[in-house]
Amino acid sequence: MTNTTRWTVAVLAFAALGLLVLRALVDQPATAGAATAPAGAPTHSSTPSPNIELAPPSPTHETARVENEAAPASEIATVAPANTPPSAVVVGYVLDLSRRPVSGLEVRYEVLEVGRLATSPAPAVRAKSASDGRFELPLPEGSVRIVAAGEGYATVRAPTLAGQAPPEPPLVFVGPECAYAGVVVGPDGQPVAGARVSVRLERELALALGSGGLLAMLSAHHTTTNERGEFEFASIGFAPQSRLEAEASDFEPAGLPLPARTTTGLLIQLAPLARGPLVCSGRVLTADRRPAAGAYVAAGGEAATCDEEGRFVLSLNPSKMSSQLRAVLPGSLPAEVDLTQLSAAQRRELELVLGGAGLTITGVVRDANGEAISGARVWTSDGESFGTVATKLGDLTFQISYSVEGMIDGLHDGQKDGRATHSGPGGAFELTGLVARRYRLWVLHPRTFELLGPIEVEAGARAVELVLAGEAQRSRVAGRVTNWSGDPLENVLITVARAENTEGSYIFEHRDPEQLPVRTDEQGRFEFAELCLERTRLHLSLEGAGDSSRAAISLADFDQLESLELRLPAACHMRVNLAEAERADSLAVLDAQGQTLTLTIVIGGVRCSANAVQIVRGVTDRIATNESAAMLVLSKEGREVDRVPVRLTPGGVNELRL
Questions:
Q1: Who contacts 578 (Cβ-Cβ below 8 Å, separation ≥6)?
Q2: pLDDT band at 58 (very low <50, low <70, confident <90, very high)
């Protein structure tokens, strides 16, 4: 993956949805229903569909100006949203599987692991559910889920948060508390270490407890087997017709019905993975010829992982297959072999020997006077494609494309790798995880955002000097941001981007993804003491709105840079319910100019963004967009079937019934 600091979780996003593949899940037989929720608790529910993917995105559009025209008032699908709790407090409800309130339970947060990033401990705060099931907790940072337990109950379905207050009360569903333990084995009866074991709700119930088909596909609970193949769920809520399922590399998924009471000694046996005719297999060794346990092997498609003996089996997909087979282990240079030069028999007896340590580029960033500059971003976007690797993000697992450099650096979480860094004290910097080739380096000043590059440097180079000489045209930039009604917007995040000198176009734009953004104050005001002006844009995003309320402005479009007046559409949330479920299977949203808006859904603690979402049996998940929405575009089987004017109101969830 190219360098990013977030996907749009409080950590992640996936705007290029078509490049990511959700792990296949097993459909369950259907039953279950719901009764009445307490006053104030939402009662939305949805119905099942075997199709669980987001619709493919259409080309993205980024507006050059912030202003847009409002949608016409006539013939607009609209509904006033419910009141939203204060942003600093999360107010929700604990319910049983019949949607009856459950009181006296302890409610708390659990931090969701995102990739292999270090996670902070869960907030220590606790709450007790009241007689109507209501609870209040302070809003935490990052991705968390809300769980409840006590009085013989434990969590069945836990709602998740992604660093922002939800626009509607989250519901924690509980059932009779049970514990489970067992072992996962292979076809030979040997334990399978590292297998993912999940509790999956019966599909109809999962849809009734969620708000759309994507949320229903998530496992209710999951864990990983230890080196002896053992797993344990110490406390979870039981739900009828749930299943216990296990999956692991090189095996077909398998499962069994979840017992209705506490049970130990459970056994799940996995069968070998069915493979096609194109297979590569063999061993990967380190430079000193030791087994490269945990190394990844790929030929442009999905990667295989080496076992403790360095052995691997890789099925090749002809449509995604590269002529080069690569093996990569974090910290080591890759091993490569040209598949076109090998017979089918040779492909099954491969021995790949990794190189030595990954290469680096080190140096220093200075200004025109020779003074060191600390905090400057130094990076390269160059890299060698590797393949896709199963990567856990929150409660989901994606197949994500990585570069060889990203794999060498060892950060398998889709966030960033050693090809980007910031200069430290004395202006020193180091890029890591590089292969033997030339890389184009870029530098961005931490305050003025002066841009230098590209500068070609050979991997392994030492004492490289990168000099930011100072651009002539610089100025203070300040102003105010409001919504469409002219009300000031507080906590709008403003970052700076610079474009390469490509005849005035914005084809190649660079910014510092780890830049501490300027935030608007309570009056919507902001200020940059000094910015380089040529080919500079400001990117605005409303905090807590994800990708749904963003815009970019070019400084070249304004004369008075110290008194900018900018408008940004406020974030809105909606859920679409079709009276006729078969009417459409996907949804896009346009503004008044016909531009496609970004739609965001929080799934399992991951904030997922795309230009279209799927409608599952007539119902969408809760969608975040913004008040510039003017038209809903309904499609079925890839063809547009209807357009419906819409006006959304900020502040809650707009329930649109069409």
A1: 584, 615, 618, 619, 658
A2: very low
